[in-house]
Amino acid sequence: MRYMLYLLTGLILFAVSLYQLKQSVAFISRSERAIGTVTSLEDVDGAYAPVFEVKTRENGHIIYHHASASKPSSWAVGEEAIFLYDPANPSSATMMSYFWLFSWAIVLMAIAIPLIIVGAGYYLLRPFTKVPDESYA
After folding, report:
1. Using the 8-state DSSP alphabet, how is residue 70 labeled?
2. What is the pTM of this model?
3. Does 136 map to a domain?
4. Distance separating alpha carbons of residues 55 and 22, to the nearest angstrom
5. CA atoms of 89 and 79, how far apart (whole Å)
6. Alpha carbon of 42 to those of 38, 54, 131: distances in Å?
7. Nearest-CA neighbor of 94 among 82, 106, 104?
8. How many angstroms separate the CA atoms of 97 and 67, rounded?
9. Contact (Cβ atoms closer than 8 angstroms) between residue 119 and residue 3
């Protein structure tokens, strides 16, 4: 019974990861590229997170606080990075890197695939693991 739960959980997580992947691809297809420049470094519990000023095509500015921090800082003031943003929602700016665009899809799929393999494997092999009714005494 628990292997059936593994299989169902894996299938649900796989479906959610595919939905997240679809959302990410849709965001990429409707977004525009912009260059962001590090304007300052925020102190976050002893580590440093960069703060970017992203210049949009319409000469607007987006302030982007990067989610990861490190010590020592991996960014320096003045460094640039490429961002994607939705013109209809400029506050949706995201750094253009594989992990930041597809993070939840990757994490959920990495959990779902082993659950599916284990659950389906035990579910499909169950008929071969039954003990015969005859005793060999």
Report:
1. B
2. 0.75
3. no
4. 27
5. 25
6. 11, 17, 63
7. 82
8. 13
9. yes
Residue 2 to residue 8: CA distance in whole angstroms: 10
Residue 135 lies in a domain: no
- Two tokens at 11? 């299938």
Summarize pLDDT for 40-97 with one digit per residue, the tens: 998 888 899 999 999 888 878 888 888 888 888 888 898 999 999 988 887 888 888 8
- By CB atoms closer than 10 A (0-12, 13-18, 19+), residue 72 is exposed
H or E segment at 95? strand 89-95
**HSE (CB half, 13 Å, CA atoms) of 9?**
12
> Containing domain of residue 98, as a range?
2-127
Q: What domain count does the chain have?
A: 1
In a domain, 137, yes or no: no
Around Cβ 122, how many Cβ atoms within 10 Å? 15
32 contact partners, CB below 8 Å, separation of at least 6: 56, 57, 84, 85, 86, 87
* The two structure tokens encoding residue 59: 């000469």
pLDDT (average), residues 27-35: 91
Q: Is residue 88 part of a domain?
A: yes
